[in-house]
Design goal:
Elements lengths: L3 H7 L5 E4 L6 H7 L9 E7 L6 E7 L6 H8 L5 E2 L2 H8 L19 E6 H4 L3 E4 L6 E6 H11 L3 E4 L3
Parallel strand pairs: 3-5, 5-8
Antiparallel strand pairs: 1-7, 2-3, 2-4, 6-7
Amino acid sequence: MRDIHAFLSDNGIAYEHYDHPAVFTCEQAQELVPEDIPGADTKNLFLRDKKGANHILVTVGYDKTVDLHSLSEMLGLKKLGFGSPERLQKYLGITPGSVSILALIHDTDHHVQCFVDEDLWKNDSFRVHPLVNTASLVIRREGIEKFLEVTGHELHVVQIP
């Protein structure tokens, strides 16, 4: 696993680091993560299509419920569903509970497409896991854009249904 802190620093991407108890769900995060941490709360879904040929990472706000059927239709993909822990490890190098946009650092072959909800993207900064679920980083929108540019991932900002 690459050192995400070193990668961000080496590429001039500013962040603030906050440790907290391990969280596996948004509900746990709301209970266990201190409320005074700045930035928009994010929920991340690692999805694959019916045949497992397409993989996407969807980032939305905590309170958004994603309609996978409508998202499948919008993206022209057949029957989106959650990727298995094995796929998550293979493509993003992480375990369940640690999913964040920063996991794209491990997708060096660019198998995973990145989609962020446009409502969430209106925020100035975001809370993201640094490849583990025992901490959060706060990164400004410009930092996320630079991260994706450096890793070679195209950002798709869309209205996630």
